[in-house]
Amino acid sequence: MDKKDLYEHLANIYLDASAKRKSKKPRKHPDFFKHLFFASLGVIILLTGLLFSIPFRYKHIISSFDNAKLTRAEFALVLQPRIIKINFDFQPAKEEIYSIDLNNLDLSKFKELGFSVRKARFEDNITLIVEVSSTTNQRSKVYLNEIPSFKWMSARIRLKDFKQISDWSKAKAISFIVEEGNSNTKDGIVYIDEVRLIK
Prior knowledge:
27% of the residues lie in helices and 35% in strands. The protein is of the alpha+beta class and 199 residues long.
C-alpha cells in the first residue's frame, strides 16, 4: 500500500467517524414544530367557534329588527320599552284595552307603527285591534289576525292605513284592544313588545 492509498484510507476512516459523531448529536428541540402545529390548530378552532357563536349570541338583537330581515336602516322612536301583557277576561268585561299616551306627539314625519305580538295559548283565535286617536277626536282602527303562540310575530302597520286620521300633528294615544266578539275564548293573554314608530 503506497502513501496515496494510505492517506485515502485514513481520510475515509476520519470521515466515517465524523459522520457518526454528528448523527449521534441530540436535537435541541425535537418536538418544537409539533407543539407549534397543535397550538396553531387550537387557536384556529377557538376563533372558528367564536365566529359561529356570534349570530346565536346576538340573535335577540337581530330579531328585534323585523325578524332578522334587516334590509334597510331605519330610525325608530320606541314608545314602550317593556313587554305589554293584555290579560283579558270577558266575565263580565266585553273588552280589554292597553293604551300608550302619546301626549300630542306629532306623527306627521313617521310612516309606520311597528311591534311584535304573540298569544299565550295555541288554541286561542284572537283578533287584535290597533287603534290610533288624536286630540281632535279622530279615531281609526286596524285589525290584526293570525297571531302566533310559540314565536313572536313582527307586525308593521302603515300609518296611512288608519284612514280616519287626517291630522297627524297631535296624536293622543295608540291602543291595543281585545274584544269579546273577536275572540273564540272568554279569557287569555296577548303579549306585545317593541312598540315603535318608524320613519
